[in-house]
Amino acid sequence: MATRFKLDENLPTVSEERIGGSADSRVLNACRNEARILITFDADFADIRLYPPGSHPGIWVLRPVSQSIANTITLLRGERSS
Questions:
Q1: Kind of pairing between the strands at 37-40 and 59-61
Q2: How far apart, in whole angstroms, are the C-alpha atoms of residue 66 and residue 28?
Q3: With the C-alpha atoms ordered 8, 11, 12, 15, is the resulting torsion angle positive or negative?
Q4: Per residue in 48-80, pLDDT tens?
Q5: How far separated are the first and last CA of the chain, in Å rounded?
Q6: How many whole angstroms separate alpha carbon 68 and alpha carbon 80?
Q7: Could you state, in order of their start, the residue ranges of all structural domains in the chain?
């Protein structure tokens, strides 16, 4: 099975699904229901006490130098931003 991702509201898909601005738990529940890894800038999701490994398909918390599209794509590709 292919790995699937959901982009948090600071990236487009959560807003398109009309769950943008929802509680973090609602966004993560959508990821669980769809077996998707969440990609977000929201550092709250990095707290493993609140979101322990194994309780969800996965969470990638991105911390780019700036939240521009170019920096985000560079980070997702595993490249270094300039």
A1: parallel
A2: 24
A3: positive
A4: 999 999 999 999 998 887 888 888 888 888 877
A5: 35
A6: 14
A7: 5-76
